[in-house]
């Protein structure tokens, strides 16, 4: 009997094509539960509560891509290594970054690592976007925040949403 009920539920779910799962996806492993790197108020202090990116959590995502861009901007990763996949090189670069900031070098970019990365200098607000620049020790890149508080970043080939749940950077 239980097998028949389970089969019916699976069948109905398949017919609906996942329609029972609605609304924006929440990001497990993020401190705020938001699906994007997000903030409000001053852009400089926005990244103090971001979710974890590591070899185990959000390994393949645009949030990981943003973290890799931060590592590149600070001289810990080559720009060619920014691909949105948290692999061995990103782990090693994260550990080096953490050591340079006096943090525990665990290779997991969590709240302390995002905070240590510093913030974004806000340049101008226009057309509903707060625009800014992330300036690392060696490089910088453009970022912007929507009215909803969600971040995008641009490494030279277009704007990407800093999502924990998808990867479009390569």
UniProtKB/TrEMBL annotation:
Keywords: Hydrolase, Signal. Residues 68-116 form the Peptidoglycan binding-like domain. Residues 1-27 form the signal peptide. GO terms for molecular function: hydrolase activity. This is Peptidoglycan hydrolase-like protein with peptidoglycan-binding domain.
């Amino acid at each position: 009997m239980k097998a028949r009920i389970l089969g019916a539920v699976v069948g109905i779910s398949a017919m609906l094509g996942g329609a029972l799962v609605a609304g924006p996806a929440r990001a497990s492993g993020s401190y705020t539960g938001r699906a994007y790197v997000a903030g409000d108020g001053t852009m400089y202090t926005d990244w103090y509560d971001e979710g974890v990116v590591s070899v185990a959590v959000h390994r393949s995502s645009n949030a990981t891509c943003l973290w890799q861009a931060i590592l590149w901007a600070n001289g810990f990763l080559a720009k060619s290594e920014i691909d949105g996949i948290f692999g061995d090189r990103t782990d090693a670069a994260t550990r080096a970054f953490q050591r340079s900031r006096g943090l525990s070098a665990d290779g997991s970019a969590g709240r302390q690592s995002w905070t240590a990365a510093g913030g974004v200098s806000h340049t101008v607000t226009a057309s509903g976007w707060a625009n800014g620049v992330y300036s690392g020790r060696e490089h910088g890149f453009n970022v912007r925040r929507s009215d909803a508080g969600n971040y995008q970043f641009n490494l030279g080939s277009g704007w990407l949403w800093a999502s924990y749940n998808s990867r479009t950077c390569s």
